[in-house]
Specification:
The chain is of the alpha/beta class. The protein has 11 helices and 10 strands. α1 links the parallel β2 and β3. Bound molecules: coenzyme A (COA).
């Protein structure tokens, strides 16, 4: 499929999605969110795609937030709808994908940009990255899951401070907070994400999908994560990947998972 605001490339088991509005620092307008939904959906449904990497084009920004020009005139109901639609189409959607998603944060990740990175399963950042949720400086709060996912990742006190001050943290502070897993130079960022993807791809994609579901269960209201884990664990025993993984171990050879 061809897109106006993003580029999706497939190579060697990895789909790399690049948000491509560098002149607007890759700000997420409505069309970009819709295109991202389609690209993520298509990649997730393709059995050959083992990992998805998302990044921003240009050297300056991952995503500098939701496109402020689109919602500056909204009323209360339009505001609620904006957040609900965005969460459904992109942020919750990505968090619950079966295919692992790595955010390669290559510059500013602000507002909706940081919320997108936090929806991904893993985050890595280049050393020029700056992250924050500056919405209170615009008279609004994060609406794409930021008030929930930031405290989950860095703790309530730090999240309160970052959101209330509308401040930005650099990549190394984000690393210290556990907001990103690794920091690299700008040139090494995509190779680093690809290296992590390579390690993930050696394992069973169906087991990984189950692991994502079980881990997410820890953060969902009304879900008993331990029960979910028992269920997902049991389901693994019915998969071809389980047969291959255990047989390969006993035969002392690397597993060749069919992904079923
Ligand atoms: N929405 C819409 N447009 C945005 C944007 C956003 N979130 N972030 C940046 N842009 C646009 C700018 O309006 C500018 O467009 P123009 O050249 O047509 O005027 C272009 O991207 C470049 O941004 P600029 O502000 O000139 O770059 P800078 O290097 O001076 O500053 C930032 C970079 C990230 C500090 C600054 O762009 C910024 O504060 N952006 C908004 C961040 C934000 O509040 N995000 C949360 C939104 S809910």
């Amino acid at each position: 499929m061809s897109y106006n605001n993003i580029i999706a490339d497939f190579d060697n088991g990895i789909t790399t999605i690049t948000i491509n509005r560098p002149k607007k620092l890759n700000a997420l307008n409505k069309e970009t969110i819709a295109e991202l939904h389609e690209a993520f959906k298509e990649a997730d449904q393709d059995i050959d795609v083992k990992v998805i990497i998302i990044t921003g084009s240009g050297e300056k920004a991952f995503v500098a937030g939701a496109d402020i020009s689109e919602f500056a005139h909204f009323d209360v109901n339009e505001g609620k709808l904006l957040a609900a639609k965005g969460q459904e189409l992109l942020f919750d959607f990505v968090a619950h994908l079966s295919t692992p998603v790595i955010a390669a944060v290559n510059g500013f990740a602000l507002g909706g940009g940081l919320e997108l990175a936090m929806s991904c399963h893993i985050r890595v950042a280049s050393d020029n990255a700056r992250m924050g949720l500056p919405e209170t400086s615009l008279g609004v709060i994060p609406g794409y899951g930021g008030t929930q996912r930031l405290p989950q990742l860095i703790g309530k006190g730090r999240a309160m401070e970052l959101i209330m001050t509308a401040g930005m943290i650099d990549a190394n502070t984000a690393l210290g907070y556990g907001l990103v897993n690794h920091v690299s130079s700008q040139e090494e960022l995509l190779p680093l994400a690809q290296k992590i993807a390579g390690k993930i791809m050696k394992n069973s994609s169906v087991a990984i999908a189950s692991a994502i579901k079980a881990i997410n269960g820890n953060y969902e209201d009304g879900v008993n994560g331990f029960e979910l884990e028992i269920n997902e664990f049991g389901n693994c025993f019915g998969t071809e990947d389980f047969g291959e993984g255990t047989t390969a171990f006993l035969e002392k050879r690397p597993a060749d998972f069919p992904g079923k």
